[in-house]
Automatic annotation (TrEMBL):
This is LysR family transcriptional regulator. Residues 1-58 form the HTH lysR-type domain. The keyword NAD does not apply. PROSITE patterns: HTH_LYSR. Keywords: DNA-binding, Transcription, Transcription regulation. The lineage of its organism: Bacteria, Pseudomonadati, Pseudomonadota, Betaproteobacteria, Burkholderiales. Gene3D superfamilies: 3.40.190.290, Winged helix-like DNA-binding domain superfamily/Winged helix DNA-binding domain.
Amino acid sequence: MDIRSLRYFVETTRLNSFTHAAASLQVTQSTISKMIRQLEDEIGEPLLLRESRQFTLTDTGRVVYERAKDVLGAMRQLTTEVRETQALSRGTLHVGVPPMINLLFTQVLKTFRTKYPDIVLALHENTGQEIERQVAAGTLEIGMSILPTNPDLGLRAVEVASHAVWAVGEHGAFKQKNTIRLDALADMPLVLLKDDFALTRRLRHEFRQVGFEPKIAAQSSQWDWTLAMARAGMGVALLPEPFISNLNQDNLAVARIAEPDIPWQVAHIWNGRYLSHAARAWIDICEQVLGGHWLDTSDQWPSEGTTPRLSRAP
């Protein structure tokens, strides 16, 4: 059923005049008459009883008139909501955020809320690897994790921040060095985050590349607990720079991992099928606040001796 036919019929009935309806809709009177006849032919019976210049509605005409007003109202509402969505003045955005990453995004959240106050921002906290699985399954539209992501999930990614990974141990553990080779940790006990954290996945990959199996003293789901265990002398914690930049280093040894450098690359991830207007706006805000560039996902998992290849998407 043609929406225009319904619109012409409703306007003609409302104004009780073909002439006035034609002027209101800025079409010819013959167009109004033609469209209403087509509507009557489609329904199979008259809607208007024409008597001279006046007309009355048939029983069917009254039903069509009332329901047509509902349809046209719904169409106006649809148009309004679509325009508001495109203008980012309505909607909800669900973002998966690992607990290790959330401290980077306070300013991002503030900027996004200031610029798009009518977008409901729902944050879902979980480990990076679980967020990757939820994004791949479509449960979350967009999330954050640490590069490289799981190549089996077929995710797309855009890096928004990169920081060095540092080793933290009890005082004197690194002989006053500012850097430490990764293979120097082979004989040291380590306290790591649990295996479902994307950082631990990255570290285990780097251990394999260097050629040793780490001696893990303990694992925790809380980064501050791994730090407390390192301070107590249980082992060496490996954490990104933001977690130790303001750290009280009394009775601690701190050294950046080198040879190879291990970047903690924070990235947005999505399943590659669609990004809503709100999700694209969120990524834009993150790039403005944190910087960032597109990742060529053909090289999501680095081969031996290489790092992911980064490039700006067109």
